[in-house]
Design brief:
By secondary structure, the protein is mostly helical. 68% of the residues lie in helices and 0% in strands. Among the domains are: 128 residues, no CATH class; 120 residues, no CATH class.
Length: 422
């Protein structure tokens, strides 16, 4: 590196001092706030930088905070790495919201432009001919001026005057009136033919030719007046307010900005899809890694730790078996209760209604005979005497099985495990 051996002269020192005054950095508050965050990249202060940037852009940081909190609650990151990926996902989602706001801004600008054009058209339409340049009117006539109410009204009035002048044989005045409408330098076929006919009539043409020319001039002037009236109506049609179709067409604006927004939206969608896929792959790998570590720790257990772990697993199995047995017992107890509720309210077995309806003799015994006939008894097999008869089921009473009596929680004892804490 080349070093400077000669000292600076007073002139050079003054020049450097003057130059240093020109490079003072940003002077506005917004510029100073942005420059103060240039060195911030990651870490705790990065969130502050994003917060300040959102405020500077007129955005609401609480909206980003809600997106981040919702993603954390739904995706449930298990470590710092997964939490960083969730944060990146929230940032991409926030950028998608920005892109949507940008699209809405372009659509709003297009609709505002339609309304602005409509207002400008009305301003132009309401202009008078007082501000029209005199040289243009003389050379090219009133017809060359921009479309406005004053222009159409003036042309209509002049054509009516020209028709009236021709009818009263004032051909020179009618010729001057046409010059006012179309100008001195107009060389169109219509103007040339009308000017030639009016000139012939002004010079005193007689006979049938003069009558025909006069008739043709009047017909052409009337057609010209109707043409300008139609143009006036068509121009008024363009002055209407933007229709719903015009406003809906603004939802697909054109231009480089819109194409850039569409490309950005597609890119953000791809980034979000990749980030979500990466997050779930990371969670799967983390679960596999934790399971692998647990297996390795299990292999490294001492005999005492392995016995304690086996005892804990047996206790869990017995406890789950007790829960299943208790559920079965409750289900069995609910069945007779449901039958008693559906039959009769006189007793748990539902026999009270039948006995109450039977006729009794003087001794109180029932006079209804057994429904079992002789033929039915003869149809029973020989070995039916050894078949136990079905007794009415009594109300289920809560019992404690041998398995439940042997449960540690019934004895007030729980085994203590010495499993190694992972």
């Amino acid at each position: 590196m080349k070093t400077r051996n000669k000292p600076l002269t007073p002139k050079q020192i003054d020049a450097r001092r003057e130059n240093s005054k020109k490079s003072t950095g940003p002077r506005t508050e917004f510029g100073k706030a942005r420059v103060s965050l240039n060195a911030v990249k990651t870490g705790f202060y990065a969130d502050k930088a994003a917060y300040a940037a959102m405020l500077a852009l007129g955005e609401d940081p609480r909206e980003y905070g809600k997106i981040y909190a919702d993603l954390v609650n739904s995706m449930l990151p298990q470590n710092e790495g997964q939490l960083m990926q969730v944060e990146d996902t929230a940032v991409i989602r926030w950028q998608q919201n920005r892109n949507q706001r940008g699209q809405a801004g372009l659509i709003g600008q297009a609709q505002e432009e339609l309304r602005r054009q409509h207002s400008q058209k009305w301003k132009d339409y309401e202009q008078t001919l007082e501000d029209a340049p005199q040289e243009q009117v003389i050379a090219h006539g009133i017809a060359s001026l921009p479309d406005s109410a004053g222009k159409f009204e003036r042309i209509n009035d002049l054509l009516k005057m020209a028709i009236l002048m021709v009818s009263e044989r004032e051909y020179a005045e009618a010729r001057a009136t046409l010059r006012m409408i179309y100008g001195q330098e107009n060389e169109s076929l219509f103007v040339a033919s009308q000017d030639s006919r009016l000139e012939d009539l002004a010079e005193g043409a007689q006979g049938q030719t003069a009558k025909d020319e006069k008739k043709w001039v009047l017909q052409d002037l009337e057609k010209d007046r109707q043409k300008w009236n139609r143009a006036w109506k068509e121009h008024l049609e363009t002055m209407r307010m933007p229709s719903p179709a015009d406003l809906n067409a603004c939802f697909v604006p054109k231009g480089k900005a819109w194409r850039a927004l569409q490309r950005q939206a597609a890119s953000l969608d791809q980034r979000l899809e990749k980030k979500m896929r990466l997050y779930w792959d990371t969670q799967q790998k983390d679960r596999e890694r934790i399971a692998r570590q647990w297996q390795e720790e299990k292999l490294e257990m001492t005999p005492e730790e392995a016995a304690a772990d086996q005892e804990a697993n047996q206790f869990i199995a017995r406890f789950m078996g007790f829960i299943r047995e208790e559920a079965k017992r409750k289900a069995a107890a609910d069945v007779p209760a449901a039958g008693a509720t559906g039959g009769s309210a006189s007793g748990p077995t539902g026999e009270g209604s039948d006995s109450a309806s039977e006729p009794l003799d003087e001794s109180g015994a029932s006079t209804v005979k057994d429904n079992t006939t002789t033929s039915t008894a003869s149809q029973k097999p020989d070995g039916s005497a050894g078949v136990p008869t079905r007794e009415p089921r009594a109300a289920a009473e809560p019992e404690v099985s041998e398995q439940s009596e042997a449960m540690p929680e019934n004895q007030g004892e729980f085994p203590k495990t010495n499993r190694k804490q992972s």
